Amino acid sequence: RNIRRDANGKLEQMKNQGSISEDDYHRYHEKNDKAIRERSEEIDKLVKERNKQLRTI
């Protein structure tokens, strides 16, 4: 959650400074959210698998 907030904050700052356009801001924002969501899903899957392994021991 903190990583997402930090990344989105940096993007917002860049947009406000004029470093990136509004379109680029939205494009990068969506890319960041998608990447973080995918990694979170991978981590959740690994945790579930590990918990299942531990319960079978």
From TrEMBL:
Residues 1-36 are annotated as: Disordered. Residues 1-54 form the Ribosome recycling factor domain. Residues 1-13, 23-36 have a biased composition (Basic and acidic residues). It holds the Pfam family RRF. This is Ribosome recycling factor domain-containing protein.
